[in-house]
């Protein structure tokens, strides 16, 4: 769930909760006064408010799924409220407020290209109704027009800001995603590594395992089958590896045919067990893609004082695995420290 959607959900819940409480008090007051004039409309508003809370908090509906429903129900409810005004001698202040609430919802939940003409038509009808009453106040209609314009302008700015925020989220996701495989990219992996390593250094995290892996003989696939097949192999790697990885493990494309794996919360003994499933693994890719193996080097978070040091050590262990015949995962390398037991 992105940031924009979270803000919308909080706003919807706050408005729906406040609206529900207000409608409960209004309906209760009408019951005490035995005033049934708008009881149906207020009861409907109370039920819709309750349904919005249920849909968001329990059913986890996206806000976009609720917008059309809310607009439709509020418009029907407000229109039903205005019908008795056709025979009323004057238009009360409450009706002006109901109109503004309906307009605010239109501008808040509908695109501007739909909200503007709907509001203009509704205002002309409402103003005509109010002006045709024997008792009317034209100044209220002027204030209503000004307030409606302000609501429209504020909504327009709000929708522009929301669009900019959504674009920013999209660009941020694109900047952290490898376009070929759809996996997190090198930048995303580095951010995750730096965050986890900082927590480990401060004693706020149990540790993690870092694995650098490189597909064996990938150049041969490109040379003999073409780069299109090579791209398909890279795309299929993520789903194939995910079958043997923990759900909380980060798998990212490091570059070319190299990938990085970050497994949080692993000590020395658990790391051996987790990476043991990768040692010598043969990746069964969808036909007609070839079967692939990989070489890998693994390190624990405490084996170096920096992320750069961890990456360098993992890289040396990776190439030690390649020199030793490929299709293996190494925890040691010539000239580098061995994994702590």
Automatic annotation (TrEMBL):
* Domain (GGDEF): residue spans on this chain: 206-334
Listed Pfam families: GGDEF
Q: Where are the transmembrane segments?
A: 12-32, 38-59, 66-85, 114-132, 138-157
Going by the UniProt record, its keywords in alphabetical order are: Membrane, Transmembrane, Transmembrane helix
Q: Does the keyword Chloroplast apply?
A: no
* Protein origin, superkingdom: Bacteria
NCBIfam families from the UniProt entry: GGDEF (TIGR00254)
Q: Per its record, how is this protein called by name?
A: GGDEF domain-containing protein
* Organism from which the protein derives: Deinococcus caeni
Which lineage?
Bacteria, Thermotogati, Deinococcota, Deinococci, Deinococcales
